[in-house]
Each structure stands twice: as structure tokens, then as C-alpha cells.
């Protein structure tokens, strides 16, 4: 008698029959019926119609039946919320049952019922269960908090469940600790507010380390993962954590091992390089990684993806283990390809002979994809290990002799790369390559061959004939081949002008007149003009020396690599992308950085670097009022510099970032973290700019700011720079920037930083059409950037361009071009940079306009936590071109009536109600275009909090 | 954490789904099917698949795909290890894990899955704890249950779950107290055409079957523990003791489990107990096939259960071979030649030779076939590992102890 009987259908009237059985008096029949219902549910049939009948079976003392009903409830409560309420009473009673199993089961099930009405009833029983005497119930309750948080995060935070969870971290039972950690980790991931609550400190870490030894394997994974997110306060702590984590490397569970590897890889960064401890650790890391490769293929795959990162970061760990990456012929293809990649990364002069012999072996296997990759790999080896180049070339020639079509084609593609790396070294083989000309049918191979012929045209006697033979079917070729053919023939002509004139004319006319491919036509015309105007110049351009290619092209960029090392064992490490690039909808995504080694002088910096910088995906977080004085410090430096610029009253140039690496790394976010003007020039008092009337004390105020008093505020408020374009997303180009207004003009102040390995140059900027018609008012002036160099620039903007409404209104989409590529990002312009200087409205007109605009266009906001008095507020706003027209005192409240005008001529009238002694002020604003209201309110908020 | 699990059979039916959080429509599996279609063989489906909103992490076991769905950043190995555990648990409960068995026992399967994860967090995955919560099916209990209306769900909290030794249930009692250990070593090797060794390593395991009453505390020591520098242990092993004294000290779980697995790498010498000499030639008229096997470094033991498998090139239509011993078959569809050699007698080496019929007019094969070899050697751990002592503390009775050694081929491959 098996359960499969439940799967057989009784065709029509099934639901009806089940209903009858569920209401049967006999317990057995009831149970059988519930089983049938569950069976239908399992295969995806809709049995929600039976909801009331199944719920009726819930009040039973039979545990199996209870479990089945709970199962059903979890699946269908969402669709029948009203009915689900009926179950609440039973749940609450079960939570007080004498049997801990039933208590745990009840609290577990309640958490799975995702119905708002029920969650309210859940709080009390949950609170009790979190303090239950039985650890089994406590550990179940811990998970339940995470479930509840998923349904209603506000409720969990309000009810203080997070504190309960934190208390559970010190529970006597390691299983409870592990579950609390897991629950906290999950909550942490989804909610930034909760993240702030769960601050890790030395004490909690110690508790976790104790629990690590005793809890189950799964608990160990959670604990290790949260350890990896902790930044030890000094080297000693880092080392002691490493020591306690190391034994986990011998665990049978691969996930535990890899998570332990993550913790060690991350904390090793903090320790003194080349110390004995690092060396032992390096030795200890190798065997567990090798062991992972003898596990099931799925585990091997994940391990290999991670090892790929590890060998790039610390090649020492696996340098002697080349052989374990040798491919076995029955490995799944996804394992084979990964192993191949790692073999190349580990290839050195010492082991290259072995590697080449293996690769040659693979090139004769059956799987075409794998064979191709192997041939490519031989080429990569040649480029990586210079001493082996000759061997690689001869191996490739051997392979070409096999005459296997796809092997020959792949070989020719990689030989082209070898020629580019070692020019003028292996030309003797060209004749062999030419023999295979006819068999090439793949565009990439054909293009490579054509490139080789063009590049070495002077040494190939019949180059013109060969190229001519390609030309016959010019229009049937792939674009790639056409382009190469064009270039190759031009090269040939420049090298042997006497007998190839006809050929070059033929190809130019084919490219420019008969082709409808714009790229091809353009290139054709360029060559044509070059050749007809100045053949000498053409020679210099076309036959210019080419930069050598290097093996680094396939390495992961260092910044990205460091970030990925922090994500070992996670999905990010499998995709080799930072989590922000593919995990969607995560609030408060934080970018993690490897901890840096702290030295006495640099400790402040390393602390700062370890603090997660907010990623640009959460601009709101960055624009939060900066509580410290630093922005004003920026103003001060700005004032200092703007002396020569002849500043006007209300303006100040942007904060200039001191050009230290650590600062740039985090952009504006770091400002608030560095308590003082580290590395910034100290301003001599004489440097104060001439100040106009309204804010004569501004400069002085700034100096007071530095002393720590809240400033009176001078000049237009400039938000600190924030990172707009991440290096990881823009092939190494990082841009941090902000907007400011000075000299009646808007400026986009940017810091360009090159985090790539090569020089970046040829920068240009373009702005998409936007709500205020902002366009660049000048050329972007950025010099060529060498690796790790930064450059500050200010781009004046003018509001005379085409207009297109954006959402939000102040959104600005920017395209930056350089020699590598074009990158896009968008940023928010604080609207107050758009307030013009002639925004003073006559009192009478103000009054008339206020009355004229319909009350429906009036919008009110509360701005809280404003610590300034009325005068300061007025001054601060005035500095940002919000002009006070009149001031009245009504029943002890100060009323400020103000006007401002946007660049596009929209007037906005505001009224501020300020109560002495109350930090909350009321802002009412009226405008004919109410759309701008939100942005203006945000600007008020910013200005009044800085 | 893990949101859902789908179990899919070879013909693409999703015959079981389980959700631990909100229900995810099974249409998500379409992405999986897409990847499956691209893969050349069922083994080649990539284990981690990215879809717009979910990540599918899968394993392939016994012709079934177990596909887990996750929505957040979780360690993929955690998911894979959990799926392995699911399969192991099913095998443990039903002695096999296939579609029919899962369907036949779906109530237990569902209860098990429910017990193993809570909201995507692993809850109870140790087989002895699960067995206390949900009793495995057997005929007597089924009959009894159907007569007296009993159930196979326990209403008692499992005893071991929260103790310091969660892997062992309390109150174990046997009339015959026995502890058996199997030291199994698998030789993975790649041997090239000329017969020289490209790469070899040993995967070793110590599997136990322990039926001891009460709370026994065991220690095991080795004659040559230096061989073991890369080991991973069952959670019951006290790692500190191993580090300081090189003794495996543990309170064992009840029943069968893997105590230790170890790895002897390519850097130490690995003895190869068998050699294979293949010779193949392909001409227009037809091909010749000639293959001899013989013992190499066997430490005087007999090599048994030898099976040779060769995947011949596509151009081979059929073979006409004679072997000195054993049976051979040729599968003309996937071109696999299987020769069950059996025992190798060093005095009279087994060989197989004959002709191959080739497809007329086709060029000689581009790729060389690979040969895989299986064998076993009883009473030998090829690495030379030997158990020195086995002691028991904590209980008064005298147990019966036994250690067996076995060497077999792992991924043993000969290139031609």
C-alpha cells in the first residue's frame, strides 16, 4: 500500500467527494482525505476551495494530521485571509501546549502564513516563544522573527524583536545562536535600518566564535558568513579570529570550508605580508581547496569559480597544485572549461611543459567547444609565459598539421595574437599558415589570416594574389573580414606601392560605393582621403607601431577582484560580478572593501575604508544631511580658491578633494568620516574672499565651523561629492561629483579617477535632454589620466538646451566617453543650483501672486530638526538665492515670506513658519508649476541641515 | 535562503514541488529547461543558472534533477550541499531515490522536506534526528498503522537535537555490540599513450557501521598518520585531538556514516596497480583493436572486478573481437566497448583483439578514444594507510571490532 494511490484522480466531482470525506466523523477517513488534498496540492492542483473543511480538521491531538493541515494552511492562507483568521485561536493555544514540539510547530507555521491580519496576533506568542525554556522552541522562534520581518519589517522593528534576537546571540545553546545569526543575516540583507541595529563588536564576535565550534554545519556557514562581514579592530584580533576559524577547513561540508576560506582570505589582508603566520596560512589553505575538487561536479564548479579568484589574488596558495586541474575526460563540460582557465592562470615557466602537453592532448578530444578553448589556451600561455612562446608556436603548428578544420581555424586566431605580442619573431611560419587559407570558413579565422597577410605583406611574395583571392567574394564576407581586408590591402599598398595600385582602388571602391555598411564605408573614405592627400601621413597612421597585448587583458580588475574576494562562496563569486550588479531590490546595498592593513598613521584611513560606502544606487542615503562640519570645510577651501575668480556674494566653488587615494576611493562619503582637514591645505586668514553684504560673516563663520560650532553658513550649499560612476562598472573610470552655483552659473564639479591598468584619455561629456534644458557650457577639460591618477574639473552648465521632462524632475543623465568606451550614469541636481540671482520679487507683486495662485497649488511640508534661529535661516537661504521678501511675527511665531526663481523662469513663493524653541518648521510653497515642489522641499531640507 | 525545490524527471515533468516561503510558480523551471536543452548530456547542465528574478541551483542524481530556487544572495555550496543531503536522506529512508519511490512515499517525503528546512533555513538534517521525528517506512509498521490507526510521525521531541552530540540519539541498545570500519581508497589517474603517468591521486574514505549501546567514546590511531595531511572529518570528530596527537577521537553516530575522507595528492607517490596497453589502427579497409591489461604495483594482492570501457570513434560501425577471458559487448549507438575482464591472473594476462568495421569512405577519426578502467583490490589500501589501534571508552562492554581495506579505481583514465 503506497502513497501513490493519492495521486490517482477520480475525475469529476473530486473536490466534492473530498469535501464529504473531510467532514466525515471517522478520524481515519479524515486523515486519508487530508492526505489526498495535500497530494493534489503537491502536483500543483488548486484545492483552495476546501479551505474551511481542512481548517476544521485542525483541532486534533493527532500530530500527523495537525502537520498536514498546517502544510495546507501555509499554502492557501494567502488566498483566503478571512478564513485563515479562524485558525488563529488554535495557533495561540498550541503555542502554550505542554509539548515543546507542538509549541515550536505552531510558532513555525504561524510565521509562514503571510496574511497581515494574522501577523498582529502572532506578536505575543512569538515574544513568549523567544524566551521559552526549551531551546528547540527558541531556535524556531528566532527563525520566525526573520519570517515576520519579511512580511512586515516595521512591525518587527517596532515590537523590539530585533533586540530579542540580539539577546539570543548570547544564548547558552549553540543551535539557538546559529539560528539567531542566520535570522539576523537575512534581516540585515533586506533592511538598512536593521543593519544599524545589529552592530558587531568584539564581544558578539567572541560569542559567535564559541558557538562556531559547537553548532551544526549549517549554523557554521551562517556564523562564518557574518564573521566575514566584520572588520577586526586591529591585526591581533584579525589573527586570533583566523586561528579559530582555521579548523573549519577540515570540515566535511564543502560550504563550511569555502566560507572559512572567505574569512581567511579577507582577514589575511590585515596581517603583515610575508609573516610566518601568513605563510602557514597559505599552506593550510591549499589542501582544502584541492579536496573540494574531488567532490561532486556541482561542488567542483562552484569551487573552481572561487579558485579562479583566489589564484588571481594570491597565486602562492595553489602554485604547486597544477595537476589537480588537469581535465578528466568524463568531467562535465562546465568543469572542464573552468579547469582550463585556472590552468592558464597557474602556468609559469616551471610547469609550462606539462601544461602544454596537456593542452595538446585536449585539442584532440571530441567536444568541439572544449577543443577550441584548449587551442586558445595554448595561445594565452604563449602570451603569458614569454619563455614558452616558441614551444607554444610549435605546438600550434603540430595542431595545424592535423588538418582538423576547427583546430586549424582556432590556431590561426591565436597565432595572430602571438604575432601581436612578439612582433617580428615567428614570421617563418607564415608560409605554413598560408597553406591552410582555403580551408578557413569562420569569419574570425579568415579575418585573422587577412590581418597576418597585411601586417607581413612585405615578406609574403604573393600577398597581393592571396588578398586578391579574398576580394573576389568581398560582399559575401562577414563585416569583420571586410574591414580587415580593406586595412590589409591598404597596408600592402603602402608597403609595395608599385604593383598594387589597382588592387587598392578596387577595394576602396568596393568599400565605399558598393557597400551599405556605414563602418566599412567610413573606413574606406578615411583611407581614400589619407592616401590621396598625404601618403606619408597615411603611412604613419596605418603602419603605426601597435601597442603590445599583454596577459593582463583577461585578469579581473584589481578593485573588482578585491570586492569579489569579500564575496567568496556567494553567488557573486560564481558570476564574478559584484552583488549590486545582479541582486535586485536590495535596500541599502553596501559595497564591501577588503580591510586594509592598519598602521599607526593610517589607522584612521583604514577605519574609514572599512566603513561601507554607500553605493550610488542609494543616492538618498548619501544626500542625507551630513552631520559634521566637513562640507563647510569644503566651502572654506572653495572660498580660498575662488579668490582669483572674483566671486560674487552668494557663491562658493566646490569642495576640492585632497588628492589622496583613500579619499577618492570613497568620494564624498568619506568626507564625513575624516574628522578634520586631513591633507587639505590650512587656509591662511588672509585668504578670505571679499564678501558682499548679506553674508559678510560667511568666511569667518566657516573658520568657526572648523572649530566645531554650527556655522552661520556662507555661500551656496554644495553637497559633498558622491561617486556617480563606479570603477567596476566603467572599466576602471571612476567619477565622483556634485553640483554648485557660483558666478551666476551652474557648475558640475567632478573628480575623475583612473582605476584601470592603462591610461585613459580622450574624455568627452554629453547630457541627455532634461527638465531644465541643462547643457554643458564649455568643453570638458580632462587631461589623460595615468593609472591611479585623479583629476578635478569643473564644467560650467547653461540652461539653454532642449527640454524633456525627467523623473524625478532634477534627474540628469550623463554620458562620458573616453578612449575605452562610452559610459552612462544619472545623477540628481540639487534644485537650488537652479535658483537664479534675480529671484527677488516685489512685495506687492508677491502678495498679489500669492493670492492669485489657487490654493490647490499650495503644498505644505514639515522640516524637522532645524537648529538655527530665524536670522540664520534667512541668511542661509539667501545665500542659496532664496530671498526673504518680508518677515512678520504672528502670535510668537516668525513668518518668513520668500521668493525664488528657477532658470526657466518659474517663480516659487514660500512661507516659513518658525516657532521659537521648536526645531520643527513649516514650509508652505505656492507655484504655478507644482511639480517642482518636492525638489524644492528637498533643497530646503538640505540647506537647513548644513 | 532556499525558497523552493522542484524535482524533475528525465522527460521534463516537474512531479514534485515544495515551497518554504511564498509559492514560486513552476514556470521558473522553463529557464532550467532552456539550459537543459543546450547541454549535450544531462550531466552538462550548469549547476547555477541566473534568471531575471531567481537563481536556480541544481544537482543531477539518479536521472532526477533537484532544482532549488533562491532569490537572495546565498552561498551556492550551501544549497548544493543541502540538496545532496536531501538525496542522501531519501536513499536512507527508502533505500533508493527515484521517481517511483518518491511518489510512493510522498507523504513522508513532504514531511521530511518540511522538517529539513524552515523558511529556507536548515532545521534538522541529521538522519538520526529525522528518524526520531519521522519514522522510516517498513512493512510491519504500515500494517500496524493501518490496523490501529497509528502514525509514523513522532510526537516526542528528538532527544539528540539539542545535546552536545546532536548526531547521536540517546538510549541506544544492542545485544551484539559491533563496530566495523571500511578503509576505502579510490585511485584517480590519467595515463598517457606511452603508459607514463600524467597525474594520480587517491581519494580515501573511512566508512563506519557502528552498533554500540549507550554513549561510547572511540579513538582510532594509525600506523602512518603522516599520509593524512588533507583530511575532512564528520562533525563528531574532535579536531583538537587530531591536531595535537593525530588520533581520531569521537562519539559515533548510530549506524552507518562516513567518519573521515582524505586526499593524497599528486605530490606524493601514488602506486598504480594496473596497466593497460591499447593499440588501435584505422585504415581504409578497416581497423585493428588490440588491448592487454596486466597488474603493476599490487603489493602481492589480486586485482579483481576489472572492467574496461572504451568509447570508440564515431566511424566504427561494429567490432569483431575475441577476448582471452570475460565477456565483452559493443553498443553501436554510443560506440562504447565494454569488456568485463574479471580477475587478472599474472601468469596469463588477459587480452582482447580483433577488427573494427569502419564506415566506408569516411576519413580516419580526429579524436582519440579514451579508455576508462574499473577494478577492485581487496584487503589493500594502496596508499599504505593502516589502522593501528581502536579503543573504546565510556562503556563497560567489550565490542566486536573490525577493519576492512579496499582499493578501487576512481576516475581512472587511459589516453590512447
Automatic annotation (TrEMBL), chain A:
Region of interest called Disordered, as start-end residue ranges on this chain: 593-663
Composition-biased stretches (Low complexity): 608-627
Family indicated by similarity: Belongs to the adaptor complexes large subunit family.
The encoding gene: LOC100377345
Biased composition range(s): Polar residues: 596-606
Keyword Repeat: no
PANTHER family reported in the protein's UniProt record: ADAPTOR COMPLEX SUBUNIT BETA FAMILY MEMBER
Topology versus the membrane: Peripheral membrane protein
Subcellular location: Endomembrane system
Protein name as it appears in the record: AP complex subunit beta
Main location, first listed in the record: membrane
Chain ranges of the Beta-adaptin appendage C-terminal subdomain domain: 835-945
Domain of life the protein comes from: Eukaryota
Automatic annotation (TrEMBL), chain B:
Domain MHD: 176-415
Gene3D superfamilies: 3.30.450.60, Mu homology domain, subdomain B
CDD domains assigned to the protein according to its UniProt record, in alphabetical order: AP3_Mu_N
Cellular localisation: Endomembrane system
InterPro entries reported for this sequence: Adaptor_comp_med_subunit (IPR050431), AP2_Mu_C_sf (IPR036168), AP_mu_sigma_su (IPR022775), Clathrin_mu (IPR001392), Clathrin_mu_CS (IPR018240), Longin-like_dom_sf (IPR011012), MHD (IPR028565)
Keyword terms: Membrane, Protein transport, Transport
Keyword Zinc: no
Name used for this protein in its record: AP-3 complex subunit mu-1
Source organism: Saccoglossus kowalevskii (Acorn worm)
Amino acid at each position: 500500500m503506497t502513497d501513490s494511490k493519492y495521486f490517482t484522480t477520480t475525475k469529476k466531482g473530486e473536490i466534492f467527494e473530498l469535501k464529504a470525506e473531510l467532514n466525515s466523523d471517522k478520524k481515519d477517513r479524515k486523515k486519508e482525505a487530508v492526505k489526498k488534498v495535500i497530494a493534489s496540492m503537491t502536483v500543483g492542483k488548486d484545492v483552495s476551495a476546501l479551505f474551511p473543511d481542512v481548517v476544521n480538521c485542525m483541532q486534533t491531538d493527532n500530530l500527523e494530521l495537525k502537520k498536514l493541515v498546517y502544510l495546507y494552511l501555509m499554502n492557501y492562507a494567502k488566498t483566503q485571509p478571512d478564513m485563515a483568521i479562524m485558525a488563529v485561536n488554535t495557533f495561540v493555544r498550541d503555542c502554550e501546549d505542554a509539548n515543546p514540539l507542538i509549541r515550536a510547530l505552531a510558532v513555525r507555521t504561524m510565521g509562514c502564513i503571510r496574511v497581515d491580519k494574522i501577523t498582529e496576533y502572532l506578536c505575543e506568542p512569538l515574544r513568549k516563544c523567544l524566551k521559552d525554556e526549551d531551546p528547540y522552541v527558541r531556535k524556531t522562534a528566532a527563525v520566525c522573527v526573520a519570517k515576520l520581518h519579511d512580511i512586515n519589517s516595521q512591525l518587527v522593528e517596532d515590537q523590539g524583536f530585533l533586540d530579542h534576537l540580539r539577546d539570543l546571540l548570547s544564548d547558552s545553546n549553540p543551535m539557538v545562536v546559529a539560528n539567531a545569526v542566520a535570522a539576523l543575516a537575512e534581516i540585515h540583507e533586506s533592511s538598512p535600518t536593521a543593519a544599524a541595529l545589529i552592530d558587531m563588536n568584539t564581544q558578539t564576535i567572541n560569542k559567535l566564535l564559541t558557538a562556531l565550534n559547537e553548532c551544526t554545519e549549517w549554523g557554521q556557514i551562517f556564523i562564518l558568513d557574518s564573521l566575514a562581514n566584520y572588520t577586526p579592530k586591529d591585526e591581533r584580533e584579525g589573527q586570533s579570529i583566523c586561528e579559530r576559524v582555521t579548523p573549519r577547513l577540515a570540515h566535511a561540508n564543502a560550504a563550511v570550508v569555502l566560507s572559512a576560506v572567505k574569512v581567511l582570505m579577507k582577514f589575511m589582508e590585515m596581517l603583515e605580508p610575508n609573516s610566518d603566520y601568513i605563510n602557514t596560512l597559505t599552506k593550510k589553505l591549499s589542501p582544502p581547496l584541492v579536496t573540494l575538487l574531488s567532490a561532486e561536479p556541482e561542488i567542483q564548479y562552484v569551487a573552481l569559480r572561487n579558485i579562479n579568484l583566489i589564484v588571481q589574488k594570491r597565486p602562492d596558495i595553489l602554485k604547486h597544485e597544477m595537476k589537480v586541474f588537469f581535465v578528466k575526460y568524463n568531467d562535465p563540460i562546465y568543469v572542464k572549461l573552468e579547469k582550463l582557465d585556472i590552468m592558464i592562470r597557474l602556468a609559469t615557466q616551471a610547469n609550462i611543459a606539462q601544461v602544454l602537453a596537456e593542452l595538446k592532448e585536449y585539442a584532440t578530444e571530441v567536444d568541439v567547444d572544449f577543443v577550441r578553448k584548449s587551442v586558445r589556451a595554448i595561445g594565452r600561455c604563449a602570451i603569458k609565459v614569454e619563455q614558452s612562446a616558441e614551444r607554444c608556436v610549435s605546438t600550434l603548428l603540430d595542431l595545424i598539421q592535423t588538418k582538423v578544420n576547427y583546430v586549424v581555424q582556432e590556431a590561426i586566431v591565436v597565432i595572430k595574437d602571438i604575432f601581436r605580442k612578439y612582433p617580428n619573431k615567428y614570421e617563418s611560419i607564415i608560409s605554413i599558415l598560408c597553406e591552410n587559407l582555403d580551408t578557413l570558413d569562420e569569419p574570425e579565422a579568415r579575418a585573422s589570416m587577412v590581418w597576418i597577410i597585411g601586417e607581413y605583406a612585405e615578406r609574403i611574395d604573393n600577398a597581393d594574389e592571396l588578398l586578391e583571392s579574398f576580394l573576389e567574394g568581398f560582399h559575401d564576407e562577414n563585416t569583420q573580414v571586410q574591414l580587415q581586408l580593406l586595412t590589409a590591402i591598404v597596408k600592402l599598398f603602402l608597403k609595395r606601392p608599385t604593383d598594387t595600385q589597382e588592387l587598392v582602388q578596387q577595394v576602396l571602391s568596393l568599400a565605399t560605393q558598393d557597400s551599405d555598411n556605414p563602418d566599412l564605408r567610413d573606413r574606406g573614405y578615411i583611407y581614400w582621403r589619407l592616401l590621396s592627400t598625404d601618403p606619408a601621413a597615411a603611412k604613419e597612421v596605418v603602419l603605426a607601431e601597435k601597442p603590445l597585448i599583454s596577459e593582463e587583458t583577461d585578469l579581473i580588475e584589481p578593485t573588482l577582484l578585491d570586492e569579489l574576494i569579500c564575496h567568496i562562496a556567494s553567488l557573486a563569486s560564481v558570476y564574478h560580478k559584484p552583488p549590486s550588479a545582479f541582486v535586485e531590490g536590495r535596500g541599502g546595498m553596501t559595497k564591501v572593501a577588503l580591510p586594509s592593513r592598519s598602521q599607526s598613521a593610517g589607522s584612521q584611513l583604514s577605519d574609514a575604508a572599512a566603513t561601507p560606502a554607500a553605493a550610488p544606487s542609494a543616492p538618498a542615503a548619501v544626500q542625507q544631511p551630513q552631520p559634521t562640519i566637513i562640507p563647510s570645510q569644503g566651502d572654506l577651501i572653495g572660498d580660498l580658491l575662488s579668490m582669483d575668480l572674483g566671486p560674487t556674494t552668494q557663491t562658493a566653488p566646490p569642495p576640492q578633494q585632497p588628492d589622496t587615494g583613500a579619499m577618492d576611493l570613497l568620494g564624498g562619503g568619506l568626507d564625513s568620516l575624516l574628522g578634520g582637514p586631513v591633507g587639505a591645505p590650512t587656509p591662511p586668514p588672509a585668504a578670505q574672499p571679499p564678501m558682499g553684504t548679506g553674508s559678510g560673516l560667511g568666511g569667518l563663520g566657516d573658520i568657526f565651523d572648523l572649530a566645531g560650532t554650527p556655522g552661520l553658513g556662507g555661500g551656496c550649499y554644495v553637497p559633498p561629492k558622491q561617486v556617480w560612476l563606479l570603477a567596476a562598472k566603467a572599466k576602471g573610470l571612476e567619477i565622483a561629483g556634485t553640483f554648485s552655483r557660483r558666478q551666476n552659473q551652474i557648475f558640475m564639479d567632478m573628480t575623475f579617477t583612473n582605476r584601470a591598468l592603462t591610461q585613459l584619455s580622450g574624455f568627452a561629456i554629453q547630457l541627455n535632454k532634461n527638465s531644465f534644458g541643462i547643457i554643458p557650457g564649455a568643453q570638458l577639460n580632462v587631461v589623460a589620466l595615468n593609472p591611479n591618477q585623479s583629476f578635478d574639473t569643473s564644467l560650467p552648465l547653461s540652461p539653454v538646451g532642449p527640454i524633456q521632462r525627467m523623473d524625478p524632475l532634477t534627474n540628469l543623465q550623463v554620458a562620458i566617453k573616453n578612449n575605452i568606451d562610452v559610459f552612462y550614469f544619472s545623477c540628481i541636481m540639487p534644485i537650488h543650483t537652479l535658483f537664479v540671482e534675480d529671484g527677488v520679487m516685489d512685495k506687492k507683486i508677491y502678495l498679489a501672486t500669492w493670492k492669485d495662485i489657487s490654493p490647490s497649488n499650495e503644498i505644505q511640508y514639515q522640516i524637522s530638526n532645524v537648529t538655527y534661529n530665524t536670522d540664520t535661516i534667512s541668511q542661509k537661504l539667501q545665500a542659496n538665492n532664496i530671498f526673504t521678501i518680508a518677515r512678520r511675527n504672528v502670535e510668537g511665531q516668525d513668518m518668513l515670506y520668500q521668493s525664488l526663481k528657477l532658470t526657466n523662469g518659474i517663480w516659487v513663493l514660500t512661507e516659513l513658519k518658525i516657532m521659537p524653541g521648536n526645531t520643527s518648521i513649516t514650509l508652505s510653497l505656492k507655484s504655478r508649476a507644482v511639480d517642482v515642489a518636492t525638489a524644492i522641499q528637498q533643497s530646503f531640507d538640505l540647506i537647513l541641515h548644513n | 535562503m532556499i525558497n523552493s525545490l522542484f524535482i524533475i524527471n528525465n522527460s521534463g515533468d516537474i512531479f514534485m514541488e515544495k515551497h518554504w516561503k511564498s509559492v514560486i510558480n513552476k514556470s521558473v523551471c522553463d529557464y532550467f529547461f532552456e539550459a537543459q536543452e543546450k547541454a549535450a548530456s544531462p550531466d552538462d547542465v550548469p549547476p547555477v543558472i541566473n534568471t531575471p528574478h531567481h537563481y536556480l541551483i541544481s544537482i543531477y542524481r539518479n536521472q532526477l534533477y533537484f532544482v532549488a530556487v533562491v532569490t537572495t544572495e546565498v552561498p551556492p555550496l550551501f544549497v548544493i550541499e543541502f540538496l545532496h543531503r536531501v538525496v542522501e536522506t531519501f536513499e536512507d529512508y527508502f533505500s533508493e531515490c527515484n521517481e517511483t519511490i518518491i511518489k510512493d512515499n510522498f507523504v513522508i517525503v513532504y514531511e521530511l522536506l518540511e522538517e529539513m528546512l524552515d523558511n529556507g533555513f536548515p532545521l534538522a538534517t541529521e538522519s538520526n534526528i529525522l528518524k526520531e521525528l519521522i519514522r522510516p517506512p517498513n512493512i510491519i509498521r504500515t500494517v500496524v498503522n493501518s490496523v490501529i490507526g497509528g502514525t509514523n510521525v513522532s510526537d516526542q521531541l528528538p532527544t539528540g537535537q539539542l545535546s552536545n552530540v546532536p548526531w547521536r540519539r540517546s538510549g541506544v541498545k544492542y545485544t551484539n555490540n559491533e563496530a566495523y570500519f571500511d578503509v576505502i581508497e579510490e585511485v584517480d589517474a590519467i595515463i598517457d599513450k606511452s603508459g607514463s603517468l600524467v597525474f594520480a591521486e587517491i581519494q580515501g574514505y573511512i566508512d563506519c557501521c557502528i552498533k554500540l549501546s549507550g554513549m561510547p567514546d572511540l579513538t582510532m590511531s594509525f600506523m602512518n598518520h603522516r599520509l593524512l595531511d588533507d583530511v575532512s572529518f564528520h562533525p563528531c570528530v574532535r579536531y583538537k585531538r587530531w591536531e595535537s596527537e593525530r588520533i581520531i577521537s569521537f562519539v559515533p553516530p548510530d549506524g552507518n556514516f562516513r567518519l573521515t575522507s582524505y586526499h593524497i595528492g599528486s605530490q606524493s607517490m601514488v602506486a598504480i596497480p594496473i596497466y593497460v596497453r591499447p593499440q588501435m589502427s584505422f585504415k581504409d579497409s578497416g581497423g585493428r583493436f588490440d588491448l592487454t591489461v596486466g597488474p603493476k604495483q599490487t603489493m602481492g594482492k589480486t586485482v579483481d572486478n576489472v572492467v574496461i570501457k572504451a568509447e570508440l570513434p564515431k566511424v566504427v560501425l561494429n567490432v569483431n573481437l575475441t577476448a582471452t577471458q570475460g565477456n565483452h559487448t559493443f553498443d553501436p549507438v554510443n560506440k562504447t566497448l565494454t569488456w568485463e575482464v574479471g580477475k587478472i591472473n599474472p601468469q596469463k594476462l588477459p587480452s582482447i583483439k580483433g577488427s573494427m568495421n569502419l564506415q566506408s569512405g569516411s576519413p580516419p577519426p580526429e579524436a582519440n578514444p579514451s579508455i576508462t578502467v574499473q577494478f577492485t583490490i581487496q584487503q589493500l589500501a594502496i596508499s599504505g594507510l593502516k589502522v593501528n589501534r581502536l579503543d573504546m571508552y565510556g562503556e563497560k562492554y567489550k565490542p566486536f571490532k573490525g577493519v576492512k581495506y579496499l582499493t578501487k579505481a576512481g576516475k581512472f583514465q587511459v589516453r590512447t
